[in-house]
Amino acid sequence: MKNNPKKAAVIGCGFVGAATAFTLMQSKLFSELVLLDANHDKAVGEAEDIGHGIPFAGEMDIYAGDYDDIADCSIIIVTAGANQKPNETRLDLVQKNVAIYKSIIPEIAKRNYEGILLIVSNPVDILTYVAQKLSGLPERRVIGSGTVLDTARLKYALSQHLNVDSRNIHSFIIGEHGDSEIAAWSSTNISGVPLDDFLEMRGHMHPDMDKQEIAEKVKNSAYDIIAKKHATYYGIAMSVRRICECIVRDEKSILPISTVMHGDFGIEDVCLSMPTILSAEGVETHIPIELSEKEHTSLKKSADTLKNIIAGLDLSM
Ligand SMILES: NC(=O)c1ccc[n+]([C@@H]2O[C@H](COP(=O)([O-])OP(=O)(O)OC[C@H]3O[C@@H](n4cnc5c(N)ncnc54)[C@H](O)[C@@H]3O)[C@@H](O)[C@H]2O)c1
């Protein structure tokens, strides 16, 4: 079905879906936003509540709908599924959420969907792979939010440590959105100045220790927040908004989204995050950033962790 570039949908209106819808309403990227949830009343309630902000933000149509209402969207964002409980890893969610995806993705596919499928539920890399297989959509149109959030967390932590604007920090978390993720320090720079030089300039004389502490803090952010407030949702909502912005405006920005890998860095047939040019058509190309040998080895290990999980999945319907 021909897609409407100003229309999007959010499937799953829990903490993440509702925060995402609220953020998208304020963004003015779309003129129509459809909310879907297995609990229809929840979707209706969120649409009404968020709709009450429209007089302050600008006109748009936001309503609870069903699969027939979303077939012509340009972006469908899937946040449905169980979230992490304290001490649970993202990979612990896989069986529950693959079962949920088996009830969602075919509904989209059978309506000849022509837009982009943006996966947010965890484990996001596995579910991006699963969504591509279950939908049969071209790989370039199935993307996961990947490490866009982790990268924002990294920039935020670095900006606080260096006392500099986070938007001037060029750095990526790559690999799994999860415990095996990697901070790509070799390519990190602050407006062109290598990170180690900038650290020294700011009076930090132990770069390796600083980097290790910051990478750990970023990796454990979700665990820390979930222990305190049971879920994370504002950071991911802003990450989804940024991804949508890039697609709607055909920006060709470089974002660390999760996509199917085909040979880059020797990684094949698994989804994980690498810096990727993203356009209105979806994935354009991966960017071969410089990695140290240690980072490359960690990336391959991250890919292997994900591949082992995929090998154990039953994707038959
Ligand atoms: N990718 C990221 O960076 C990131 C960040 C935070 C959370 N998450 C993930 O997002 C997901 C949602 O988290 P949450 O905190 O919003 O959870 P939540 O429990 O608050 O919400 C999940 C929602 O999904 C709905 N749902 C379940 N099955 C459904 C189905 N078949 N069809 C439609 N809706 C269905 C539920 O009714 C519920 O409203 C989790 O998997 C979580 O781990 C991802």
Automatic annotation (TrEMBL):
Has the keyword Oxidoreductase been applied to this entry? yes
* PROSITE patterns assigned to the protein according to its UniProt record, in alphabetical order: L_LDH
Which parts of the sequence belong to the Lactate/malate dehydrogenase N-terminal domain? 7-144
The pathway where this protein functions is:
Fermentation; pyruvate fermentation to lactate; (S)-lactate from pyruvate: step 1/1
* Keyword terms: Allosteric enzyme, Cytoplasm, NAD, Oxidoreductase, Phosphoprotein
User: Where does the chain bind beta-D-fructose 1,6-bisphosphate?
Assistant: K155, H170
Name the positions where substrate binds: Q84, R90, N122, P123, V124, D125, D150, T151, A152, R153, T232
Top EC category = oxidoreductase
Listed binding positions for NAD(+) are: V16, D37, K42, Y67, G81, A82, S103, V120, S121, N122, S145
This enzyme catalyses:
(S)-lactate + NAD(+) = pyruvate + NADH + H(+)
Instruction: Output the InterPro entries linked to this UniProt entry.
Output: L-lactate/malate_DH (IPR001557), L-lactate_DH (IPR011304), L-lactate_DH_AS (IPR018177), Lactate/malate_DH_C (IPR022383), Lactate/malate_DH_N (IPR001236)
Where is each Lactate/malate dehydrogenase C-terminal domain found? 147-311
- Write out the annotated subcellular location: Cytoplasm
Under the GO molecular function aspect, what terms does this record hold?
A: L-lactate dehydrogenase (NAD+) activity
Identify the Pfam families for this entry: Ldh_1_C, Ldh_1_N
Name the principal localization, coarsely classed. Answer: cytoplasm
User: Where Phosphotyrosine occurs along the chain?
Assistant: Y223
Instruction: Spell out the CDD domains in the cross-references.
Output: LDH_2
Could you say how this protein's activity is regulated?
A: Allosterically activated by fructose 1,6-bisphosphate (FBP).
Signal peptide range in chain numbering: none
Q: Where is the active site?
A: H177
The family note in this entry says:
Belongs to the LDH/MDH superfamily. LDH family.
Please give the NCBIfam families that the UniProt record associates with this protein: L-LDH-NAD (TIGR01771), PRK00066.1 (NF000824), PRK06223.1 (NF004863)
What is its quaternary makeup?
Homotetramer.
Q: What does this protein do?
A: Catalyzes the conversion of lactate to pyruvate.
Q: What is this protein called?
A: L-lactate dehydrogenase
Gene name linked to the record: ldh
